[in-house]
Specification:
186 residues, alpha+beta, 3 domains, 3-stranded antiparallel β-sheet, 3 helices, 54% helix
């Protein structure tokens, strides 16, 4: 093979290589376009999933609201919520008013008793002056007590009740004498 033939063969190979490069570039462009379409399809799918989840949540919320409205409409307008008290365990108390429920533990119950007692002390009518028939109570035997004397002669007696906590009583000198006489009477 002479030089011209070799150059011709090289030119043919270069042309063939150029054709292969063009084909490879076209294939790379098609692959890039496919990748872009796949990414767009994935983003569209994710957007549809998000829209579906949002629509489902909104439908569930609307259904719950409709059910609550139906329940409210079905209940008589003048019906007041009922207070229910339960004791699910030794150290817990559950209070339910209407559809709302809360579980209280010993510290919270003590705080509730104190707040209720303070509020009740300012309300009218006052508790009855005589013991009501059938009244249930829990008494504390030999309670821990503390006493303070005021400048006007009154005595503050604070007794620790196991259910009510610390319960304060103020006695005038006359009432203190009556209490003493009641306690020492045989």
């Amino acid at each position: 093979m002479n030089l011209e033939e070799q150059i011709g063969a090289i030119d043919a190979q270069v042309d063939r290589l150029g054709e292969l490069v063009r084909l490879a570039q076209a294939a790379a462009e098609r692959a890039e376009a496919e990748r872009a379409r796949a990414l767009e399809a994935r983003q569209a799918y994710e957007a549809l999933q998000t829209a579906h989840a949002t629509a489902t949540a909104e439908a569930e919320a609307a259904s719950a609201a409709a059910e609550a409205a139906a329940n409210a409409a079905a209940a008589p307008a003048d019906e007041k919520p009922t207070l229910r008290v339960a004791r699910p365990s030794h150290n817990a108390l559950t209070l339910s008013i209407g559809e709302q429920t809360v579980t209280l533990h010993p510290e919270q119950i003590g705080q509730l008793i104190e707040e209720l007692a303070n509020a009740r002390a300012s309300m009218t009518p006052e508790p009855p002056m005589t013991l009501p028939t059938g009244w249930r109570f829990a008494s504390t035997k030999n309670p821990v007590m503390a006493m303070q004397k005021h400048a006007n002669g009154d005595r503050l007696l604070i007794a620790r009740h196991t259910g009510h906590g610390w319960v304060p009583f103020t006695f005038s000198p006359e009432a203190a004498v009556q209490l003493y006489m009641m306690l020492t009477q045989r």
